[in-house]
């Protein structure tokens, strides 16, 4: 009789998710680790897009970066080393209504997970994949990675990495059906956020390589890039990133790059004196495997029941056959 009728005063349709709604455990990454900046950007995206936590999934492999799902207050799957992508594809094919994100390390994606990486690009499923590229195996204490630069001293290459580093961007751009390829640097948070937002809005496999600092094992590695803004080549375009005036004052090295220009994207990806920041390539016309499969067969409750019954029928015992067997045994 006294007080508010809460049933009536709270309109559940008007639920607003704040940043805190996406935050979970306190991250256990080292202070200054670039993974913290990536997490903050992704939580901001979820808040801005008002993604319902129960409709959002983060899938990872194994590595420092792969602790990501523990820090998101959404569904999550901390998988196996190198296997984040097939797990995410499995989730998406069965639950197309979910927003699926993948967080992988450079070792996860480009070493043990290489086959999955290549085929995930070709399958072009509607998933956002982020590679936290710190050029090292962080979790296993500083082993060489395919993206480690030549000469880098690590615990498995104490005299320096022998090979030239694998170029993640040119490799991705070279795969059939590549539909969205972007590059970001975690120390430019505004552009990191804008790039992840563009990736989220792309229908298809959105591949974002993020240059990520590992101050614990490779302190100062990225200092020349972080301290000299001209080492970042900002890619701007009306169909890509639009950079604010404030950022332009700092990041003057810009190129207007049309993300539909694959040849120029490949040239930019090959630059090794600057870090391109922006959308290298976007093609909305490539078909998605999840859409193709959906068009062929809609899994209604009826169809599921029918399929289950067909399976059970394989184990059914025909009464005529069992009678014949019984009388044969008796004679
Ligand atoms: C099948 C398998 N092989 C090897 C390992 C050991 N292992 C765990 S994480 C990792 C590399 C992590 O490096 P990266 O993927 O770059 O992630 P980071 O820690 O740098 O974020 C390795 C080799 C494992 N857990 N499982
Ligand atoms: S070891 Fe490197 S990558 Fe791992 S949490 Fe620490 S700073 Fe980050
Ligand atoms: Mg790594």
Provide a descriptive summary of the structure in words.
37% of the residues lie in helices and 16% in strands. It has 14 helices and nine strands. The chain has helices at 6-9, 19-22, 34-49, 84-94, 106-112, 114-123, 168-173, 189-201, 223-227, 245-250, 262-270, 289-296, 301-313, 319-330, and strands at residues 56-60, 75-78, 99-105, 127-133, 180-185, 205-211, 232-236, 254-256, 275-282. Helix 3 packs across helix 8 (189-201) and helix 5 packs across helix 6 (114-123). The protein has 331 residues and is an alpha/beta fold. The N and C termini lie far apart (83 Å). It folds into two domains: 14-294, 3-Layer(aba) Sandwich (Rossmann fold), CATH 3.40.50; 297-330, no CATH class. 39% of the residues are buried. Iron/sulfur cluster is lined by residues 29-30, 33, 35, 64, 134, 138, 214-217. Magnesium ion is lined by residues 63, 105-107, 134, 136-138, 145.
Order of helices and strands: HHHEEHEHHEHEHEHEHEHEHHH
Give the biggest sheet: 9 strands, mixed
Radius of gyration, Cα only, in angstroms?
A: 24 Å
Total beta-strand segments: 9
CATH-assigned fold name of the largest domain: Rossmann fold
Task: Give the mean pLDDT.
Answer: 93
Beta-strand content bin: 15-25%
- List the domain count as a whole number: 2
- Pick out the low-confidence regions: 1-9
Summarize the amount of helix as a percent range: 25-40%
Which class do the helix and strand fractions yield? Answer: alpha/beta
Strand order of the largest sheet: 2-1-3-4-6-5-9-7-8
